Amino acid sequence: AVVSTQSTGYVVGAIMSGLITLLGTVMLVLDAMRASRKLFTAMLLRIMKATPRFFDITPLGRIVSRFSNDIISIDTTLLENINSAYSLFCRVLCVLVMQIVASPYFAIAI
């Protein structure tokens, strides 16, 4: 069976798309974990430097609740924002590549 060049291009494109999606997802998860860890460390250092009076006035449940709410916020909101940024970057990159493939003279302008 003879495989046409066009169908080979589609297969290569699909594989590349899958690999790029996988890479983007891995980068997204790693960046979100790094941001969450950074926030948690900063919050913990801040709370450890608090005066004993702060712990007398503030109930432990409120401190734990604040920690969990902030981490949840980072894990959801920041993850969505990073995902949107990666998605936008990939779209712009794909448009540029398609434009260069369609019109090689466009590469000169870049």
Describe the structure.
The structure is a single chain. With 110 residues, the chain is mainly α. The chain has helices at residues 5-48, 52-57, 60-102, 105-109. Helix 1 runs antiparallel to helix 3. The longest helix has 44 residues, at 5-48. The chain is elongated. The model has no long low-confidence stretch (mean pLDDT 83).
Percent strand: under 5%
Relative helix content: over 70%
Q: What is the N-to-C order of secondary-structure elements (H for helix, E for strand)? A: HHHH
Average pLDDT, to the nearest integer?
83
Contiguous runs where pLDDT drops below 50 for at least 5 residues: none
- Principal-axes geometry comes out as elongated
SS summary, helix count: 4
DSSP strand count: 0
Structural class: mainly alpha
Distance between the termini: 41 Å
Using only C-alpha atoms, the radius of gyration works out to 23 Å
- Largest sheet, strands/sense/barrel: none
Secondary structure topology:
Layout: H1 5-48, H2 52-57, H3 60-102, H4 105-109
Helix pairs in contact: 1-3
Describe the structure using short key phrases.
single chain, about 110 residues, mainly alpha, elongated
